[in-house]
Inverse folding.
């Protein structure tokens, strides 16, 4: 028997090592160890003031920090009975989309794309395909600019607080950004075409698929949790009762199951569950590349992210339009500090993110709980690797490694998030 | 100087007229406070303001300013032009006009500063009369009055403005944009009365006699240690002061490392690095020595050169200082016998 | 004061390109740079007095005030003796002959050469303080017949830090200069004095009524040297000191170089001791 | 030969590395000045044996981190610590208040759970090795980072500011939070972020650490006058600075 280790899998956020045991040319075992040390976030919020919790938990992840921040804020708003204005909600959706644009562009171009052209990183591409790299940077920048416009900076936004926003962009800047979004739709479309043109492995996951769903909206900020195979919808406040989390010995990331099955979250489950609410341009893009939905191929998560870019650009332009017309205020609403508990979920770029908190009468946090998208995906990813590896084990070693890594990267995992 | 009268309801005409040829800057509301900013519509102009957060010095000597662009390879200046748009600052109080004249001594005196000069030359100043606030003490320095250093000055006589016209350009602008009439005797009388009332509205009279001498005589007074213990070394006082002009200069490279800009930024004598030289030697290591230096320089260093103190009593520093250190307190303590 | 800034540039902050024409290693940390301003008319107009300084500019790094070490009588070139003390000086030390740097100046008040003429001179330098004094010494040397007795006291920490040793070794044998060198920490090769410069005052004989003093060195040195000069009976207003302060502009604007109620850049760096006595925190 | 640069992440949220990729406008220019020898986030490949500049993000939370840092220190001629985690311990160091075992039990439950990866109490890299440059903040400010990187490539000194935030806050014409009856840590926090939060309406929470020039004792007194107890101030200040000694007294 021989053992192959792929240390520090590159081009993913965080540190992970894949171990493959091969016997007589057959894959005996394959799994990924998350070698991220424990981070104690759920414990570190305990004893801090409630309004510091979003500051703390947003430091779980530098890429989807807006999502952590907002999910945390929403959960605390539930705990303290705070209702926010419609304007605030739209601003928050824009903030979420900022991280979509940023994350998807980074993942697709910087992290995933090099695999398809056989390069170690995106940097050599700058010489051979400068247009592609420039497009990547443009879309990514668009996301950063959106997060900055609404939140004040691209990582760890500043302005979002319980009850509203501490500051709002000038209308002039909103108008300019709407125009930038409209101009970016071509880049988004080109991204779909690029990823649509790549050959993908034929592979199907056996896991369930979960995502937030909402009848009238592509649910990223609100909604219920929906299950693709089981067909149910449940309020997110019950997340602890439908997601089982367990500690696994070899890793500081916990593993999750739903109804005893491993499951997947992310762009693919979202589109599978919410295809009907995709905007017209995104639906067109989906048709153009001929992806049949629902799809059970996790490799298609990349393509689905690209489709979401198209959707995000169009939708954000629409939101800005609404903001410019609607009036209303985002000034944080007043509220009383009292003991309570609350939980909330949003769709982070990589999948559904749950936060839950309890605070005491002084507003001091007494318990915190977070389930990140990657933590939900890990068990399914392990299962997929076991199912997928045998089909590529005959490839030369280097190609085998890349094939396995490609599967891992298709999940767009954030290992530092998964340990939190 | 000659005098005109303008009805108050003509003010918008004047502002709108000026906006045609100039960038008009004036006090506008920011929350509960005021800032000098571009006036887009006449209603934005708030001539009833108390004082602005930053003084108008920011318009001549910005907090951060590019001095020149350079190329590293051959150590060459690529560009050191200053572009200064034609501007009118509308609504300066006498203290702020006086402060600009004190800045002029430094920046337009020996070794003229081209950046300051360009902005100064392209800017017209329109002053406006004010009311004393709790913090101001301009009466102590005689900077509650201003007789030159402006183009036009408006004194608020209730229903009309008494306009002092100092420069030809000021006169031309008035003629061009607004209907005014000559001041008659009753106007002049009202103006005199206004001035008397204004002078009388100061309740506090700061004794500033012997100040330079006291600063030397009480150089080692424990007063300074007491102030040093309180001072936050945050530099807020220097930033908001209309007469503080110290700056730092740094080179910033562009990302490619080939070109860059030499930038100057406001600095403060309250920072430890201010008087530090090579090998860590620092001529003003202690907080007490730094607090002292600010007063020493303003009330004596500058005076020794220009025969004026470098303070116009605007009270901004007193308001900005969280530790509550104010010139009024310091001067009084010195006059009253230091710390004792 | 220099006429340059007005006649030759509208912008006194803008440095003139100058070429490094020679570099000499003096010690491990100090080098002597000879420079030539490239523009002919600027170079010709660049007239200075001993004790004045320039702002040396290396774009991308910054500026540093440096005293001119060469004598005004040396035309067309200026010499800067520079210790590697940080960013700008460190970057200058990496430059090579032929490289271009920027210079602004000359700035400040130098030594009153005209007033000093016809008198005896007592020059006291500590460490790098020899840099501005060397300009004065060389100037006196070039006008030697205009001066009476010239005494030079120069101290450094150890022999390897004695600057311009090649020149002083030559001068030691001349009888028109009295030159005494001293170090705090001698080595085997050291044949001169040992101890602080103040010790050397016992060894010299001056006519206090007819002597001008000039002092430049580390800040701690001034008080002690002045005490000795006063003990010898010299008048306070015939003693000149040169101060080093942090500077960002060199032209009396940035405020960093305040000494008491004066600015070291335009009121100094050379001050008459009688004036300096009235400057708080000066000495 | 351009300087060889490696980027290494220890325990962190990668936020500062993400922030590094966020200088899109300048990224390609910067890359032209260096040889990027290793950046796990962006590229396959292994950490090389030799390099000149190491950019290190994150806090130290395992023995492996310590060993890695020592290796880096022995190899690199300049180390740049980026982000609050690396410079002051930042958010990860919150786990140093209370016992690590309790934190572990809180997250992973009691019982004999296998401790993966080993662990030590989180600390900034500056407590393990000396560094030439520090870019504080959570996350780093991109402008400051590019300037520091540029200084590192030029071999210039660290230029980390020592003053508190209020001066720059004044130049931005913010109305002081104390005038609005709110607590702002800007008056003791190291400047350099352009008072970003304050300008956007949120009091400074101190992510850049205690300023050397700050007068903490005076700040404590004058906050007390405003009804904020010493303990309250210290608790707030510890959010990003649990390990700052001045805040634990
Ligand atoms: C009038 C005058 C004449 C001088 N003549 C000479 C000379 O002939 N030869 C020589 O080697 N040096 C001379 N110096 C000192 C020289 O200017 C400083 O060593 C130099 O500025 C340090 O700059 P840097 O960029 O190399 O160091 P930096 O990296 O800027 O700083 C290193 C240290 O020097 C301090 N520093 C910064 N600016 C100054 C400054 N303007 N003056 C002193 N320290 C500063 C810094 O605070 C830091 O502690 C003179 C200084 C003055 C004011
Ligand atoms: S010192 Fe204070 S009162 Fe005087 S001009 Fe400056 S800010 Fe105004
Ligand atoms: S808001 Fe904060 S940083 Fe600004 S002046 Fe007030 S205390 Fe200082
Ligand atoms: S204002 Fe304070 S909390 Fe905000 S970035 Fe600056 S140092 Fe950090």
């Amino acid at each position: 028997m021989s053992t192959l280790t792929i240390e520090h899998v590159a081009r993913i956020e965080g540190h992970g090592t894949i171990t493959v045991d091969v016997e007589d040319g057959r894959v005996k075992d394959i799994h990924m160890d998350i070698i991220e040390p424990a981070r104690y976030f759920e414990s570190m919020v305990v004893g801090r003031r409630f309004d510091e919790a979003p500051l703390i938990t947003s430091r779980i992840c530098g890429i989807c920090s807006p999502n952590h921040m907002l999910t945390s804020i929403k959960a605390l708003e539930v705990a303290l009975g705070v209702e926010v204005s419609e304007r605030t909600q739209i601003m928050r959706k824009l903030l979420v989309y900022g991280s979509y644009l940023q994350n998807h562009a980074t993942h697709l171009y910087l992290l995933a794309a090099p695999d398809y052209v056989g390069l170690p990183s995106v940097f050599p591409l700058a010489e051979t395909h400068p247009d592609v790299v420039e497009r990547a940077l443009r879309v990514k920048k668009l996301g950063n600019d959106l997060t900055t416009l609404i939140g004040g900076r691209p990582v760890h936004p500043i302005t979002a607080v319980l009850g509203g926003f501490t500051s709002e962009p000038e209308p002039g800047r909103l108008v300019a950004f709407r125009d930038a979004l409209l101009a970016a739709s071509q880049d988004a479309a080109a991204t779909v075409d690029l990823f649509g043109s790549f050959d993908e492995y034929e592979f199907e996951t056996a896991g369930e698929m979960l995502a937030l769903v909402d009848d009238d909206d592509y649910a990223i900020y609100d909604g219920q949790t929906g299950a693709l195979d089981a067909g149910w919808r449940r309020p997110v406040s019950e997340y602890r009762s439908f997601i089982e989390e367990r500690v696994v010995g070899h890793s500081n990331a916990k593993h999750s199951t739903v109804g005893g099955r491993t499951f997947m979250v992310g762009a693919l489950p979202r589109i599978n569950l919410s295809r009907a609410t995709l905007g017209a341009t995104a639906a067109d893009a989906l048709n153009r590349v001929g992806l049949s939905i629902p799809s059970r191929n996790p490799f298609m998560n990349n393509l689905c992210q690209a489709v979401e870019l198209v959707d995000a650009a169009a939708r954000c332009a629409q939101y800005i339009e609404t903001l410019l017309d609607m009036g209303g205020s985002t000034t944080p609403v007043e509220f009383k500090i009292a003991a309570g508990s609350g939980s909330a979920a949003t769709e982070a770029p990589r999948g559904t993110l749950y936060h839950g908190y309890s605070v005491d009468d002084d507003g001091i946090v007494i318990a915190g709980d977070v389930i990140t998208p990657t933590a939900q995906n890990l068990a399914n990813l392990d299962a997929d690797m076991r199912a997928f590896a045998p089909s590529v084990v005959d490839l030369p070693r280097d190609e085998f490694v890349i094939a396995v890594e490609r599967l891992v990267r298709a999940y767009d995992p954030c290992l530092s998030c998964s340990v939190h | 100087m000659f005098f005109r009268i303008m009805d108050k309801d003509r003010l918008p005409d004047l502002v709108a007229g000026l906006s045609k040829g100039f960038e008009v800057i004036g006090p506008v509301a920011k929350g509960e406070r005021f800032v000098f900013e571009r006036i887009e519509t006449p209603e934005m102009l708030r001539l009833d303001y108390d004082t602005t957060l930053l003084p108008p010095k920011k318009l001549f000597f910005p907090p951060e300013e590019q001095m020149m662009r350079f190329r590293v390879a051959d150590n060459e200046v690529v560009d050191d032009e200053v572009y200064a748009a034609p501007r009118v600052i509308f609504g300066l109080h006498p203290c702020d006009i006086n402060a600009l004249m004190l800045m002029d001594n430094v920046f337009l005196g020996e070794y003229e500063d081209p950046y300051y000069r360009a902005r100064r030359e392209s800017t017209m100043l329109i002053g406006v009369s004010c009311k004393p606030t709790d913090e101001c003490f301009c009466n102590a320095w005689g900077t509650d009055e201003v007789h030159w250093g402006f183009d036009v000055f408006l004194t608020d006589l209730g229903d009309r403005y008494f306009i002092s016209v100092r420069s030809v350009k000021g006169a031309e602008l008035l003629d061009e944009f607004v209907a005014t009439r000559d001041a008659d005797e009753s106007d002049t009388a009202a103006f005199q009365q206004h001035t008397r009332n204004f002078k009388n509205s100061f309740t506090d009279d700061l004794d500033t006699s012997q100040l330079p001498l006291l600063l030397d005589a009480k150089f080692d007074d424990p007063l300074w240690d007491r102030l040093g213990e309180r001072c936050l070394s945050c530099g807020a006082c220097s930033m908001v002061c209309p007469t503080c002009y110290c700056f730092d200069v740094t080179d910033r490279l562009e990302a490619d490392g080939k070109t860059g800009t030499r930038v100057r930024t406001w600095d403060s004598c309250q920072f430890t690095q201010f008087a530090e030289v090579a090998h860590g030697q620092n001529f003003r290591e202690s907080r007490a020595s730094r607090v002292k230096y600010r007063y020493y320089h303003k009330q004596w260093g500058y005076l020794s050169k220009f025969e004026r103190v470098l303070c116009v009593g605007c009270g901004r520093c007193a308001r900005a200082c969280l530790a509550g250190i104010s010139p009024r307190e310091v001067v009084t303590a010195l006059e009253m016998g230091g710390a004792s | 004061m220099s006429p340059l800034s007005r006649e030759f540039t509208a912008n006194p902050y803008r440095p003139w390109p100058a070429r490094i024409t020679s570099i000499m290693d003096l010690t491990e940390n100090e080098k002597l740079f000879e420079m030539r301003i490239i523009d002919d008319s600027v170079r010709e107009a660049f007239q200075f007095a001993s004790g004045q300084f320039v702002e040396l500019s290396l774009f991308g790094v910054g500026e540093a005030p440096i005293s001119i070490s060469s004598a005004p009588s040396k035309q067309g070139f200026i010499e800067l003796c520079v210790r590697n003390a940080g960013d700008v000086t460190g970057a200058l030390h990496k430059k090579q002959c032929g490289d271009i740097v920027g210079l602004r100046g000359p700035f400040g008040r130098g030594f009153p050469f005209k007033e000093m003429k016809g008198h005896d001179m007592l020059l006291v330098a500590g460490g790098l303080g020899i840099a501005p004094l060397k300009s004065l010494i060389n100037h006196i040397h070039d006008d030697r017949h205009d001066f009476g007795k010239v005494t030079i006291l120069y101290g450094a920490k150890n022999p390897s830090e004695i600057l311009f040793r090649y020149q002083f070794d030559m001068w030691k044998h001349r009888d028109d200069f009295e030159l005494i060198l001293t170090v705090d920490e001698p080595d085997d090769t050291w044949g001169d004095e040992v101890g602080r410069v103040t010790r050397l005052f016992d060894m010299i004989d001056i006519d206090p009524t007819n002597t001008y003093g000039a002092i430049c060195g580390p800040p701690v040195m001034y008080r002690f040297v002045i005490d000795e000069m006063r003990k010898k009976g010299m008048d306070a207003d015939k003693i000149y000191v040169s101060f080093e302060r942090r500077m960002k502009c060199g032209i009396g604007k940035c405020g960093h170089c305040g000494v008491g109620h004066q600015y070291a850049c335009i009121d100094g760096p050379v001050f008459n001791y009688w004036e300096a006595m009235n400057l708080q925190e000066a000495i | 030969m351009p300087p060889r640069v490696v980027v290494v992440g220890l325990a962190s949220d990668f936020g500062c590395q993400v922030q590094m990729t966020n200088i899109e406008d300048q990224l390609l220019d910067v890359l032209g000045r260096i040889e990027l020898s290793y950046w796990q986030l962006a590229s396959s490949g292994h950490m090389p044996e030799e390099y000149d500049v190491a950019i290190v993000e994150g806090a130290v939370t395992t023995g492996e981190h310590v060993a890695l840092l020592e290796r880096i220190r022995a190899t690199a001629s300049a180390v740049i610590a980026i982000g609050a985690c690396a410079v002051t311990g930042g958010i990860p160091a919150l786990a140093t208040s209370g016992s690590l075992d309790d934190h572990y039990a809180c997250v992973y439950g009691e019982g004999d759970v296998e401790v993966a990866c080993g662990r030590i109490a989180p600390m900034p890299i500056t407590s393990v090795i000396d560094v030439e440059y520090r870019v504080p903040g959570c996350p780093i400010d991109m402008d400051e980072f590019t300037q520091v990187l540029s200084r590192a490539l030029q071999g210039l000194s660290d230029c980390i500011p020592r003053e508190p935030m209020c001066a720059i806050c004044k130049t931005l014409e913010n109305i002081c939070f104390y005038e609005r009856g709110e607590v702002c840590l800007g008056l003791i926090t190291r400047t350099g972020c352009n008072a970003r939060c304050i300008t956007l309406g949120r009091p400074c929470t101190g992510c850049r650490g205690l300023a050397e020039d700050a007068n903490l004792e005076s700040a404590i007194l004058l906050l007390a006058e405003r009804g904020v107890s010493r303990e309250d101030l210290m608790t707030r200040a510890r959010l990003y600075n649990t390990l700052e000694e001045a805040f634990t007294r």
About this structure: Chain D has two domains: 4-154, 166-247. The CA atoms of residues 38 and 47 of chain D lie 6 Å apart. Residues D 137, 189, 193, 195-198, 204-208 surround iron/sulfur cluster (ligand 4) (CB under 6 Å).
